[in-house]
Amino acid sequence: LRVKVTLLKWLRSPCFPCCCSCGGHGSFFSGGGASTCSVQDENTGQKYFVKVGSTRQYDMLKAEYIGVREMYNTKTIRVPKAIGHGSTATQAYAVFEHLNLSGSRRGGRAYEMGEKLAAMHRHTSANGCFGFDIPNTCGVTPQPNEWTESWPVFFDTYRLHNLFERLRKKRGITFAKEEEVRSKIKSVLEDHVAKHNPPASLVHGDLWTGNAGFLDTGEGCIYDPACAYCDREYDLAMTHLFGSLPRPFYEGYEKAWPLPKDGQQQRQEIYNLYHVLNHALVFGGGYVQQAEAMMDEILTY
To answer: What residues are labeled active site?
Structure first.
């Protein structure tokens, strides 16, 4: 209750958001178009990370709260504890445990971090299907998560088709090879399922290097998710899209739960196409050309 009272007082402050401490090594959760601040309880001295947006962003912040809680409850890799979420007349918010990040993404216990991500991926959906209980967002982009028995169908329908439609409607961008690429991707993923039968693993869903780090204790942590139950390679692929995590991270993961090697690079390109299309939707520019180049490559598989 004290957290809520203190937070509401802060949100209603006439100097909001100037009264909060933003930026620096301690602030993350910066994606999704919401503001992120570190708030200190004036009664206890306890710090919290608070993500604040407009009332229109209530569902987005609630979904992030639920995703963080889902990961936290696995008791595997370190994530901030999800404290609560709610709204005032003018603001929506989600509150998380404050974590002290080291500011470096190259130090820390990377091998252990890889092992713990593999442990989180061993948590699979209760119904055996791919999806999530609620829709959420990847960055600012709405992401449907209808439960689906088939991984190729889920990825095609609720990842690729969703973005191609949004690109058409928001930016007027179409891709001449869309149908051909989607057919090829479904074929590749159907072959993957036939050979390896990937389970519906709990994934972070937006695991680029900016959403992973190390605490000042050296422990690895992840945050700012777009959770769903997917092929676990979906997470690993994105760690290579914008840079990569330290090599011991991959060694630790591989030791804990080896990935199937045949076709892995192809699937990495396929899964990362989704994120590049998302960047094309949000930012336009060179990401459109990058997506086209990736589709040309995928068609050679």
So the answer is: 206
